[in-house]
Amino acid sequence: MSFLVLKAYWNLILFDLILARGNFAALYNKVRKYPVGNKPAVPDAVERICSAVDMACIWYWKEALCLQRSAATACLLKQYGVLAQVVIGAQQMPFKAHAWVEVDRRVVNDKPYTPEMYAVLDRC
Amino acid sequence: MSVQFGRWNLDGKPVDRDYLEKVTPLLAPYGPDGAGSYSNGNISILYRGFHTTKESRRESQPHVTSSGPILTWDGRLDNRAELIGQLGDLVTVHSTDVEIVSAAYEYWWEDCFAMLIGDWALSIWNPHTRSLILAKDPIGTRQLYYSFDDKQVSWSTILDPLILLAGKTFALCEEYIAGWFSFFPAAHLTPYVGIHSAPPSSSVLIRAGKHIVSKYWDFDPSKRIRYRADGEYEEHFRAVFGESVRRRLRSDSPILAELSGGMDSSSIVCMADAIIAHGAAETPRLDTISYYDDSEPNWNERPYFTKVEEKRGRTGTHIDMGSQELFKFEFDSDHFAATPGSGGGRPSEAGRQIAACIASQGNRVVLSGIGGDEFTGGVPSPTPELQDLLARGLFRPLAHQLKVWALNKRKPWFYLLFDAVREFFPPALVGVPKYKRPAAWFNPAFVKRNRAALTGYEDRTKIFGPLPSFQGHIGTVDVLRRQLACSDLSSDLPREKRYPYLDRTLLEFLSAIPREQLVRPGQRRSLMRRALIGIVPDELLNRKRKAFVNRGPRVGIAAECSGLELGQHMLISSLGIADSTRFAEALQKIRRGAEVPVVTLMRTLGIEFWLRNLTTRHVLGGAAWQTRPATKQALRNPTDQLCL
Q1: What is the ipTM for the molecules in this complex?
Q2: Rounded to 5 degrees, what are φ and ψ at B229?
Q3: Which pLDDT does position B267 carry in this prediction?
Q4: Within an 8 Å CB–CB cutoff, is residue B94 touching chain A?
Q5: For the whole model, what pTM was predicted?
Q6: Considering only the top CATH level, what class is B230-376+479-541?
Q7: What are the domain boundaries of chain B?
Q8: Sorting pLDDT into bands at 50, 70 and 90, what band is B641?
Q9: N or C end: fewer C-beta atoms under 10 angstroms in chain B?
Q10: Cβ-proximal residues to B574 (8 Å cutoff; 6+ apart), any chain
Q11: What is the pLDDT of residues B416-433, one digit of tens each?
Q12: Nearest C-alpha of chain A: how many angstroms from B579?
C-alpha cells in the first residue's frame, strides 16, 4: 500500500507540473495514451488505488485539483490493468467544470451522482 | 400569531383617539379573530387575535392580572401542564395560556420568563410601578418592536404603525442594511434609527428615565450529555424531537407542513404522522405543501417528497416553482414595505397558490424545517470536532480524526488543522473565510464601518471555557435569531409559522451532546439518520445528495436584470453603500454565467428597490443615514441603560 501511495504521490507531482505549465493538451494526451498494463487487475485494485491516491492527497502540500487527482488515478489504474477513463464535465449556470474517473461507466473516485451534476464534455 | 400595540404618553396626556383609530386598520389584517383594548389615562393597548388553539379562542386580551398589571400575550405556551402543576390552585387545566402566564408572572415576577417554553412575545404594563416590560422567547420567533423618546413609548408586533404614524421621519440604520447583505443584522436592530426590536431571550424594562435590556435565559455550557452507546443518544433524540413536533401540533385546525423532500421537512412530517396516529396531537389533520422545479438540476425533490406521500397515503399540494416569476424586485408604488423582506406588495403566483391552498384547507399553522440543517449536522464540517479535541488537549484522537476527515474531504490534513486553529485567533489577524467576505461592489468605507455586520458578526472561538462546538452552536443560534428577526408577518392571509427545529429543549439537547454524534466523516446528520430509522422512509435516510438551488436564481436575475432600470443613479450608490459600476459588472458576470455571490447580489437589488419604495413614502429624513454602528452596546452588554 505504501508503495502505491508513493506512486500516487509521484503522479500528483507529475500532473501538477504539467498543469502548472498550462499544458492541458499534454495532460490529455498523457492520460489517453497511457498504456494499460498487461497483467489482469486484482479484484480490489480499483479500491486500493483510489485509497492510495486519497492518502497521497492528504499528504500533498496543497489541495489537489480534481483534474490532477483524476489523471493521477486513471494512469495508476491503467498501469495496474484497469481500463479507466478520465471524464470531464461542465455545468452551464454558474459555469463550473469538473473531472472524475470512471471504470465501466461507474464513478470510482467521486460521488456516484457526479455525472448527474455535469454534462459530460469528453472522456480520455 | 396575534398582534398587539401599545402607546404610553410620558407627559401624562391621554392617548389621542384619532391616533388609535389610525392604528386599528393597520393591525386588523393580522388579527381577524376579534379585537380587545385597554385604556387608562395616558396608556392605551390594542390587541387583535389570530387563534390557533382551542384555549386561545376563550382568551380575552389585554388581560388584567389579579394584582393589576396588564398582560398582552402573543404566543403558544408549550409547558402548560408543568406550570399548572407548579402554580397549584391559581390555574386549572382549562385555563388559557394567557391566564397561566399571568399567574406565573404574579408568582415569580420576571423570573417566570425563563420558565415559559414556547414561541411567544409579551408586554406587561404595571400601573403601580408605572413601568412597561417587553419580552420575547429565547429564539425570537415572534416580533415585538418598540420606540421611545422623552414624550412617549410605543410598542407593536408590526412595524408599520410605529413608522407611518410617528409623525416624523427616520434615519436609516446603516448596520441593519449591512447585516442584511450577509448573515442578517443583529436581532435588536430595525432599519430605522430610534425603533428597536425586543431581543430574543431578553426582557426590556422601560420606566420614565430608564430603559434596561436584560437577558433572562441562556444555554448552559456546563450541561453535557454523555452516554455509553449510540443507541442511547438516538433514543434521547427521538424523544426530544418527537416532543418538539408534538408541541407544534397543538392547533384546533388542520396544520400545513412544508414538505420539500429533504431530511428536515420529511422528518417533521413523518414524526407528526406517528404522533397523530398515536392520538397524542391536538390537530385534526396534517396537510403538506411541496415545491418543485424540474428545470433545476440540483433540486430534483419530487421523487423524495413523493416517497413521503406514499408512506402517509396522502398527496399534498404541489407548486411548480419553475413556472413562477420568482425574482420580482420592484415594489408596488401603493404598498409600504417596512423592511427589505416585506415583499413588493403584489403576491407572486406561488404566493397566490399558497394562499389558496391555506384558505381551502382551513390551515392556520404552517410547520417549517428552518434550522434543521444548521443544528442537526446538515453541514458536514469537521472543524467543531477538531477544535474540541484541540481545546481538550486530546492530541492522539486529534491526529486520528484529522486523518479520517482529510481522507473524507480529500484535502491535506494541515488544511483542516489550519481551519480549526484559525478560529481561535481574532478575525483581524487571520482574516475571515472567503464565503463571509463582503462582495466586491461594496464601498470600502461602508465595509470598514460595518465589517462586523457584513461578515456575520464573526467572533473568535475561545480555547478556554465552553467547548468550541458549544460556542459554534450558540453562534448558529444567533444567526437563526437574526434571520427570524428579519422575517415578516403575512397580512394577505394570516398564518402562524412554527419551527420544530428551534425548540428550546431540542436545542439544549443538541448543544450538550458530543459533536461526533451529529456529524461523522461521510455521514451528514449521523444522529438524525440513525434515530429516525423506521419513521422516515429509507430512501430519504440513505439519500447521499443534498439538494440545492443554484441555476434558478442566476437565470432569474439574468432575465430580470435586463428589464430593470438601474442606471448610474442607484440609491445604494448615492448613500455610499455600493459602487454602481462594480455592481453593474457583477450583473454582467452573472448574465455570462460566471461565479458571483448570488445571494448578496439579490439582496443588493432588493435593498435598492426597497429604498426606492421608502423614498416615495417620505419616511426617510433629510439625513437619511446613521453611520455609527449601534450593535456593540446591546450585544456585548446585555444590561444596558439609556436615559429617555
Answers
A1: 0.92
A2: -125, 155
A3: 97
A4: no
A5: 0.91
A6: alpha beta
A7: 3-215, 230-376+479-541, 383-478, 551-643
A8: very low
A9: C
A10: none
A11: 999 999 999 988 888 888
A12: 23
